[in-house]
Amino acid sequence: MSEKMQENGPDLRQQVPGRGRQSKRTGTPDIAPKRRSRQRREWIVTDMTGETKNIVVTGRVAWMMERLVEVGPVGVTTFDHPGVRLSHYVMCLRQEGVDIETRREPHGGAFPGRHGRYRLVSEARRADQ
After folding, report:
1. Structural domain of residue 110, as residue ranges?
2. How far is CA 14 from CA 19, 59, 62, in A?
3. Which positions fall inside the Winged helix domain (predicted)?
4. Which value, in Å, is the radius of gyration of the alpha carbons in the chain?
5. 65 contacts 57 by C-beta, under 8 angstroms
């Protein structure tokens, strides 16, 4: 360890067991819990042209697909789910070939502006149902 690092204070990596990559070598338990397995969903999607395809989505993208199907023509906004990156999940679904409409809506409050409401245009159903 360098003298400069010792001058700035103790090395916390050596004081906290299980910190960082060392936990695998020393056998101490990890600080962060193990990642749960992602939900994996297969969907049958019919786009606006009538073309039908099977897509498989996982994690939050699968959650977003379920929410869009669940709410129907009302659509989903970030006001419904604050803190969730809806635009990213919509982009991922669009890359899979799902037709999703974005309507821009004004909003007031302390920070007035516009937000997007995402609505599923494609017909979609779970493959296992």
Report:
1. 40-126
2. 8, 35, 40
3. 55-125
4. 23
5. yes
pLDDT score, position 51? 92
Domain count, the chain: 2
Average pLDDT, consecutive stretches of 10 residues, N- to C-terminus, the chain (129 residues):
55 53 50 62 91 93 94 91 90 95 91 92 90
Q: Are residues 61 and 120 in the same domain?
A: yes
Question: Rounded to an integer, what distance in angstroms lies between the CA atom of residue 58 and that of residue 26?
Answer: 33
- Amino acid code (one letter) for 65: M
Count the neighbouring beta carbons within 10 Å of the beta carbon of residue 46. 14
Question: What is the rounded CA–CA span in Å between residue 69 and residue 87?
Answer: 16
Q: Are residues 75 and 13 in the same domain?
A: no
- Classify residue 63 as exposed, middle or buried by CB count within 10 Å of its CB (0-12, 13-18, 19+): middle
Q: Which two tokens stand for residue 85?
A: 């990156």
